[in-house]
Specification:
By secondary structure, the protein is α+β, with helices and mostly antiparallel strands. The protein has 4 helices and 5 strands. A 5-stranded mixed β-sheet has the order 1-2-3-5-4, covered by helices on one side. The protein binds zinc ion. Zinc ion binds next to strand 3.
């Protein structure tokens, strides 16, 4: 359904259609707001989802443009998202997932393993 309508919608709908079409192993925590996330961040999320999926884990977004973050956080600019890790009991797998996300994205992305989540942000460097 999304696929059929994808070519006809505005850019944002097309991007969301791509997200829905491919993201069969992705969930959003209640109250996560995606409004205004950048296409660059979306691509980072999609690539991260493929890596979570490779290890048979779903990618659960726990925060994007919502919740409390530091005043200068890229979350507020739609350039950062957090992923749950508590459903992955093997810490070495979490480390591997982080490493693989890093090696799959460019240096314009920062992937940080926090105590209870993976933080992904797009911060272009020129
Ligand atoms: Zn974050």
């Amino acid at each position: 359904m999304f696929f059929v309508f994808a070519p006809y919608g505005p850019m944002r709908m097309r991007l969301l259609s791509v997200l829905f079409y491919y993201a069969y192993n992705m969930k959003l925590k209640d109250n996560v707001k995606l409004r205004g996330i950048t296409p660059e961040l979306l691509i980072g999320i999609l690539i991260a989802e493929r890596i979570f999926d490779k290890y048979k884990y779903e990618l659960i977004i726990t925060s994007a443009v919502d919740s409390k973050h530091s005043a200068t956080s890229l979350h507020y600019a739609g350039n950062a998202a957090d992923f749950r890790i508590r459903h992955i009991s093997d810490k070495s797998i979490i480390t591997q997932i982080v490493q693989e996300i890093k090696s799959s994205l460019t240096q314009d992305f920062d992937i940080i393993l926090e105590p209870d989540h993976i933080h992904l942000e797009h911060q272009p460097r020129f």
